[in-house]
Write a structure and sequence with these properties.
Blueprint: E1 3-8, E2 12-17, E3 22-26, H1 36-43, E4 52-57, H2 68-82, E5 88-92, E6 96-98, H3 100-105, H4 107-110, H5 114-122, E7 130-136, E8 141-147, E9 150-151, H6 158-164, E10 167-168, E11 183-186, E12 189-192, H7 201-207, H8 228-238, H9 248-276, E13 283-287, H10 291-300, E14 308-311, H11 312-315, H12 318-322, H13 324-336
Parallel strand pairs: 1-4, 4-5, 7-13, 13-14
Antiparallel strand pairs: 1-2, 2-3, 5-6, 7-8, 8-9, 8-10, 11-12
Helix pairs in contact: 1-2, 5-13, 7-8, 7-9
């Protein structure tokens, strides 16, 4: 059975098929929700017609929707219309697939379930261990305890996971700098950051050469390409300067400081998660488009110094690593769903 998995977020649409091909595109769902069907159709042109579409999502939280139920319904309708005649199943946090009509009845189970699909799929790599999955993407960080290959989290919904430390709303690309700290060191003083969307964490890591330049990427705070020179200019603007007022060395000092603050934020949540675990993780799985940040955090944490670290990005190619949740639901559906003349309930 040939399955395409979709991970539909508020800023990115990610896809992968059960054979290992993957593709993602930027899509600002909150700005143009009415164009989601068209965007999905464009995304799916890279694939042959599937036997089944498996869906997970986080885009229901976008503020274009009055409620999460509205968001789940809109997303599922767009998927159904994008692939008419193809059966659709939805992953939910009860660890099973549901048809869209049932998912609409229980929207909070389908909402923000992509982390659960990823943990369920990757957890099989350590079926007999106490482990931890750290997935850091462009916008958020997931810290998911694993036991006997299954996710064993304190929270299930977004708010429960925020409270438990298992969800940290910070990532390696889209997080505004003012969300990391309100002041930065500058010229021997503590300078307030402008509380504006002038620069993001991607600018930090491009300037520090921890992320490569990407001249074709204009999904930045000012719409200019993701180059080191533009990252410098955006960081300068965050302290109300331009590049004639702030030196590159000063921008780098700011970037180093803010990168350390982001690492501290995630580490604080990680300590919260580790404090509830009965055993120190034997293996830590790291993944996501900002896996470089997860690697730094694990290496610097004293409780994880003896853990085996498995970088998912080194097992799969980069496109699969970036679309890991979509690949997870595609593989889970291919394994679990029985076909006759129509899609039946999973085993």
């Amino acid at each position: 059975m040939y399955v395409i998995g979709l991970d539909i977020g508020g800023a990115n649409l990610k896809s992968a098929d059960s054979d290992g091909a993957a593709r993602s595109i930027a899509f600002e769902l909150w700005k143009t929700p009415e164009l989601l069907q068209t965007a999905l159709q464009e995304l799916l042109t890279s694939y042959q017609r599937p036997d089944l579409i498996a869906v997970t999502m986080t885009g229901e939280l976008a503020d274009c929707f009055q409620t999460k139920a509205d968001g789940v319904d809109h997303i599922l309708t767009a998927v159904e219309q994008a692939v008419p005649g193809v059966p659709v199943l939805v992953w939910q946090t009860g660890a099973e697939f549901l048809p869209p009509d049932i998912a609409r009845e229980f929207p909070l189970l389908a909402a923000a379930a992509n982390w659960h699909a990823l943990a369920t799929w990757l957890g099989r790599m350590i079926p007999d261990q106490h482990g931890l999955l750290i997935d850091i993407g462009s916008t958020t960080t997931d810290l998911i305890p694993l036991q006997q290959g299954l996710p064993v989290t304190e929270g299930v919904t977004d708010v429960e996971r925020l409270l438990s430390g298992e969800l940290v709303y910070t990532g390696g690309r889209r997080t505004p700098l003012a969300m990391l700290e309100n002041r930065v060191p500058l010229r021997g003083q503590s300078c307030p950051l402008a509380a504006e969307y002038f620069a993001t964490t991607a600018d930090l890591y491009v300037l520090l050469e921890e992320l490569p330049e990407s001249p074709e990427d204009i999904d930045t705070a000012d719409g200019r390409p993701a180059t080191r020179a533009n990252a410098f200019a955006r960081i300068a603007r965050s302290v109300c300067c331009d590049i004639t007022e702030l030196s590159e060395e000063e921008a780098i000092e700011i970037a180093v400081w803010l990168a350390a603050r982001q690492q501290a934020q995630i580490t604080e949540a990680l300590d919260q998660v580790l404090s509830r675990m009965d055993h120190v993780p034997e293996t830590v799985l790291i993944s996501g488009s900002s896996v470089f940040l997860a690697k730094k955090i694990v290496q610097s944490h004293p409780l994880l110094a003896q853990a085996k670290v498995t970088n998912v990005a080194e097992i799969f190619d980069r496109s699969i690593s970036d679309s890991a949740c979509a690949f997870a639901v595609a593989r889970l559906a291919a394994e679990r769903v029985r076909f006759s003349t129509e899609v039946e309930q999973p085993d």
